[in-house]
Specification:
304 residues, alpha/beta, Rossmann fold, 6 strands
Length: 304
């Protein structure tokens, strides 16, 4: 038995030594023309300079574009990328847990189009929402999915770095939730310093918290007035209307109208066409404010 064990041990040592000494077989060199997930030699649509066989994409969402669409958009000067962060959390009995993600689906789109030279990265749908165990913050409610702060920052870092590698020069964070702002600021500062002028990263906290003196759209439209009731929910007319513009199902619109519950803080949503007009006004105002802030951040960086 001892002889067998010794022989087995010798085989392991020899095998390990051989593996360590055996030269690594280098694979075939990649064709520098190859791009798009395949080999240029196999199909011209895998070649870096092959013209796009389809018309230019009309979407601003990178995930809805082909690699050729993104390549051509960059060449056309769309070198600003918006990374928006949402969340999964409780929002009372009417709004779905993905509230922030529904808001961003409309808002990032409008902001990018108003900028004219921007594309939207996929929404970061999972963010810090509280301690997972023992539970704290929004994690006490079912449906919440939380992320550790270090995980969130690592994710933002990798997304931003990927975009930079492809040629985006201005990378902008907008967060639809208060808990997202700290991590965005940390990553933006770190990457801007690290990249030393080759690309610029900024976060726009005023997208989430409007600066003092910002007009209240619903007040201007006469929809809300002083002294209106507050339902005491993690909800508001503004956020509800913003979500409604993306998808009425996200606020349970039809069910609420049928049940006579299509009201929030004294604002009735029962008139669908009127509610959608208010929603568009809210989104346009928020987008205009954010676009101005993004342009200011980029110009300030250029001047520094």
């Amino acid at each position: 038995m001892n002889h067998l064990l010794a022989a087995f041990g010798t085989l392991i040592v020899l095998s390990t030594a051989f593996s360590a000494q055996a030269p690594q077989q280098a694979g075939p060199a990649q064709d520098p023309r190859s791009m798009g997930g395949g080999d240029c030699a196999a199909n011209p649509y895998n070649c870096v300079d092959t013209p796009n066989p389809l018309p230019a994409a009309t979407t601003v969402w990178i995930e809805e574009m082909t690699w050729m669409d993104v390549r051509d958009a960059l060449k056309a000067g769309k070198t600003t990328a918006i990374i928006s962060t949402g969340g999964m959390e409780p929002n009372g009995p009417w709004l779905v847990t993905g509230k922030h993600n529904y808001v961003l689906r409309t808002n990032c789109d409008v902001i990018a189009r108003k900028l004219g030279n921007a594309l939207c990265a996929p929404i970061v749908k999972l963010v810090p929402e509280g301690r997972i165990e023992p539970q704290s913050g929004h994690m006490i409610s079912p449906g919440t999915i939380s992320m550790r702060e270090e995980t969130f920052q690592a994710l933002l870092t990798d997304i931003a770095a990927s975009l930079k590698q492809h040629g985006f020069k201005n990378i902008i964070f907008i967060g639809d939730s208060g808990g997202n702002q700290k991590g965005q600021a940390v990553v933006a500062e770190k990457l801007t310093a690290q990249w030393n002028g080759t690309a610029f990263v900024a976060t726009i906290p005023e997208y989430y918290t409007a600066p003092p003196g910002t007009p209240n759209v619903l007040r201007q439209l006469g929809v809300t007035t002083e002294g209106m009731p507050d339902d005491g929910l993690h909800d508001s007319p503004g956020i509800t209307l913003n979500m409604m513009l993306t998808d009425p199902k996200s606020i349970r619109y039809d069910e609420r109208v049928k049940a006579g519950k299509a009201t929030i803080n004294g604002v009735s949503l029962a008139d669908r066409s009127k509610a959608l007009e208010w929603a568009k006004a809210i989104v346009d105002a928020r987008a205009d404010r954010t676009v101005a802030l993004i342009k200011k951040a980029i110009e300030t960086k250029k001047a520094s």
